[in-house]
Design a protein that fits this description.
Layout: H1 2-35, H2 39-69, H3 74-99, H4 101-124
Helix pairs in contact: 1-2, 1-4, 2-3, 2-4, 3-4
């Protein structure tokens, strides 16, 4: 039980690390894009990054729930939550595309930036 608690603390710390790094990237990118006149892209980038971070949090919650569910129910729970996350992603991108192309491009870029930060954090570790 102690190792499970330690693992959950590590997962929360990893989420905080990724959140801090995403905030740094957005603090630089959003004003640069807005200053270049790309306000919709900047807004989409912030919204996309926020959704990407929420999706990452939901992934962690799904993994934690699967560990608690046991080996029989875990695959069904993980599969359902996986599909739900990607349906939400599709709906967010579709909604952004219906509103404005710049908003869509920013949202997609924001989501990709979060995944890139997660990848770099996994490769380089906490710096």
């Amino acid at each position: 039980m102690e190792s499970c608690v330690a693992t959950m603390r590590e997962a929360r710390e990893l989420e905080r690390t990724i959140l801090r790094r995403a905030a740094i990237v957005l603090a630089v990118a959003a004003p640069v894009l807005a200053g270049a006149g790309l306000h919709r892209v900047a807004l989409g980038g912030v919204a996309g990054a926020a959704f990407g971070l929420a999706s990452f949090h939901l992934l962690g919650a799904a993994i934690t729930a699967a560990l608690a569910a046991g080996p029989v129910r875990a695959p069904a729970q993980v599969s359902l939550k996986y599909v739900a996350r990607y349906v939400l992603t599709a709906l967010v991108l579709y909604g952004a595309l219906r509103l404005d192309t710049g908003l869509f491009l920013g949202a997609a870029a924001g989501m990709i930036v979060v995944r890139f930060i997660i990848l770099l954090t996994g490769l380089l570790g906490p710096l």
